[in-house]
Amino acid sequence: MTETRDLVKGNEAVAMGAIDAGCLYYFGYPITPQSDIPEYLSYHLPKVGGEFVQAESEVAAINMLMGAASTGIRAMTSSSSPGISLMQEGISYIAGSEIPTVIVNMSRSGPGLGGIAPSQGDYFQAVKGGGHGDYHLLVLAPNSVQELYDLTILAFELAEKYRNPVMILGDAMIGQMKEPLLREPPGEIHEYPKEWALTGAKGRPQRVLKSLYLKDGELTAHNWKLHQKYETMKESEIRFEELMTEDADLILVAFGSAARISRTSVMMAREAGMRVGLFRPITLFPFPEPQLTAMAKAGKRFFVVELNTGQMLEDVKISAQGNQVDFFGKPPGALPTPEEIFEEIKKIYPES
Amino acid sequence: MSEKKIFSRPKTLKDAPFHFCPGCHHGIAHRMVAEAIDKYSLREKTIGVASVGCSVFLYDYFDVDVIEAPHGRAAAVATGVKRARKDKIVFSYQGDGDLASIGIAETVHTANRGENITIIFINNTVYGMTGGQLAPTTLLGQKTTTSPYGRDFMQDGYPIRMTEILATLEGTAFAARVAFTTPKNINMAKKAIEKAFQFQKEEMGFTFVEILSACPTNWGLNSIDSMKRVEEEMIPYFPLGIFKERKAADVL
Amino acid sequence: MKNSVIMAGFGGQGILLIGNMLAYAGLEEGKHVTYMPAYGVEMRGGTANCTVVVSDEPIGSPIVGKPDAAIVMNLPSLKKFESWIKPEGTLLFNTSLVSPEKQTRKDITVYPIPANDLATEMGNARLANMILIGAYVEATGVVSQESLINSLSKVISERNARFIPQNIEAIKLGARQINPSNA
Known about the structure:
The structure holds 3 protein chains of 3 kinds.
Chain A: E1 6-9, H1 10-20, E2 25-28, H2 36-44, E3 51-54, H3 58-69, E4 75-79, H4 81-97, E5 101-107, H5 123-127, E6 138-140, H6 145-162, E7 165-171, H7 172-176, E8 178-181, E9 208-209, H8 218-236, E10 240-243, E11 250-253, H9 256-271, E12 276-281, E13 283-285, H10 289-297, E14 301-306, H11 312-320, E15 325-329, H12 338-348
Parallel strand pairs in A: 2-3, 2-4, 4-5, 5-7, 6-7, 11-12, 11-14, 14-15
Antiparallel strand pairs in A: 1-8, 6-13, 10-12
Chain B: H1 26-39, E1 46-50, H2 58-61, E2 65-68, H3 74-84, E3 89-95, H4 96-102, H5 104-112, E4 118-123, H6 153-156, H7 162-167, E5 172-179, H8 183-201, E6 206-212, H9 216-219, H10 223-237, E7 241-245
Parallel strand pairs in B: 1-2, 1-3, 3-4, 4-6, 5-6
Antiparallel strand pairs in B: 5-7
Helix pairs in contact in B: 1-8, 4-5
Chain C: E1 2-10, H1 15-28, E2 32-38, E3 47-55, E4 69-72, H2 75-81, E5 90-94, E6 109-113, H3 115-122, H4 128-140, H5 145-155, H6 164-178
Parallel strand pairs in C: 1-4, 4-5, 5-6
Antiparallel strand pairs in C: 1-3, 2-3
Helix pairs in contact in C: 1-5, 3-4, 4-6, 5-6
């Protein structure tokens, strides 16, 4: 490690990543456990010529974001589960209108007011749509403070590349934990052409960003176009991490916080002589289905660990194509310990 | 005898026929907003925010950049646009259901923050596009498809006066209510809309013009009787006038 | 080397502050560190605990079921966390607020320290947390005392920088509870 690393809270790493990605506008509403993000940005955005707006609600915040981003400027919002629920209407419009935006969900527990403890109960909401209509977010699931920073920078780029909202799905654990961060801003921000941005119709035809299509066949074509975009993401944007999967008889599949805890359980299993590995999806949409399917075909057995009662599990089962998939779920309240997961591994580890 | 052209299409309006019902006031309102934009040569720097309702097709008529907002959220979208592009002129155009019911929080807070945008508010006391349901501005006793016995304050409360409410807020620079019922009122409406855009140009703060409008189709009246209704039933409850006009010196 | 510790007490006892200090000290020594706070919905007065892992290798879980050590500042925390400590692990607890007979395990190394009384003798009861972290570092050698002292400037704002010398004194007083010959 170098001296340039600083001890940084996960939420702050997101805010730093946003600043270093050239984000100029933030719109949001306070909610635990992510308020460090608006607090940091309310202080730092004015220093880089940007602006912070505390909205009257998450409903307003997502719409302000839609407005600001429609002008081609980098902008974001962040919230936690109940606030993200309130944003779903706006997210659907943003997806339909193809406006590049970054939305951070440092998720907490639900349903309802739930609690402020970490949870992965928003997987379905993030990955399967969330709002109305046939659309997808590109979903990134960081599992460390460093990755929160790096993936926030990536999120802004992917949002513009695909003209699509990108969600960073973290949770109260990685948002609140502190780790060393190496803050290396990208040298140059890649500029994608923005022939869609609303800048005033000066010397060019009018531009319209909308999601209402009433003429014959228009909406059908629009939906197919969006679908094609999601297919392109599946071809080009799948990201994942593997740890000792090659010789493994059993592969833990986990994302975000659950992957972080599982990593230690895998090490415990290795020390006990078990051939156990870890597969960690970094993009939840597009989901690394081809990679998991290939491993399933090679005879690998999966063990899904999530901080919920089984959501990503469904995608792993689809990928496993009939192979056995075991599951350990921990609904919100208390985080599982690595020891607890290790005990579960021992129960299902294939006898040889 | 020489001919002089005294009437032509505003540059800001496209050469497209309106889809509005006969006797509807949207067409007049559209034209007046376009004329105000022309007057200050703002077309090339204007970004419009369309709302959900009969006016959603704003972009089919106005030759400016437009973003389409979710129902009720136009003021929040306009806030985002304006914050990001302060050199642009930003206006939203919203009906009574959109602005005063589902979007009242966004409306009030946008005004209260003094966002330097203009809202054109069409009050026709009824939900137009969805088929004539009760609006927050529906008059007492008025029958709609969801108040078949007439609006009863015991059940639905009272018609809401948005201009008066917004005029109380410090962030509001200009708030006026106008109608198209007489030549005098039309002149007043034109001046109010122009003033709103002028104020925005001068960065005076939030500007708001409420237009009392006819909806003959959902009122079940012809164009002339609709106009009479605006004059005889709406204006007495929703008085016309300028309710707030900030002086330059008042801007902090 | 990998070392994990849970620190726990009432909100306001400065638990999260000493957790941060240990993480900063580890960072200064080029080690991998994680700091994981647990918190209630209250802003003040609830219970507070945090887990700090300092390791030569990259750290998997910042959550630890069986920590190498615990620093306990009040009775509820002793009741909750004493059983978590690894066999042959280390427990430091604050006998000013927890009577020694409440401590039960025999398979761990126990350091009973009257942290509040010692702090009060120094003239500032709020230094109890510094005494305990000083003692912990002396007892375990996870980081050096020097690194720990250097971390003070990271966690104490410039506005309060004048308090740093007495914090250093408290850290050293804590260390002497473990090793009386330590200057």
